[in-house]
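Hi team,

Below is the intake form for Flagellar biosynthetic protein FliQ from Verminephrobacter aporrectodeae subsp. tuberculatae. Please confirm the fields before the structure is written into the shared record.

FORM ID: S-0412
PROTEIN: Flagellar biosynthetic protein FliQ
ORGANISM: Verminephrobacter aporrectodeae subsp. tuberculatae
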Amino acid sequence: MTAQMVLTLGRDALGLLLMIAMPVLGVVMAVGLIVSIFQAVTQIHEATLAFVPKLIAAMVVFALAGPWMLGSLVDFIRRTIEAIPSVVA
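The structure came back. Fields below:
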């Protein structure tokens, strides 16, 4: 296994990580921003008011995008495992 192959595998893994994490992080960040604006306007500073909507939003995103995320991960792992014989030989 050459250094180029290791770097390519690492780059692909990081790219996949970013691609899978972005929907959840984006939605949670947007919900957090909306809740923060609501708290600032109403001057309600309750910790659960910030936490619960973000948790619910994350669960909804996982429910909707979970199959795609899992399929992407399985495809990456399958390609990596199938490449082992060509790397060893």
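SUMMARY LINE: Helices lie at 3-42, 47-82, 84-88.

Thanks, M.
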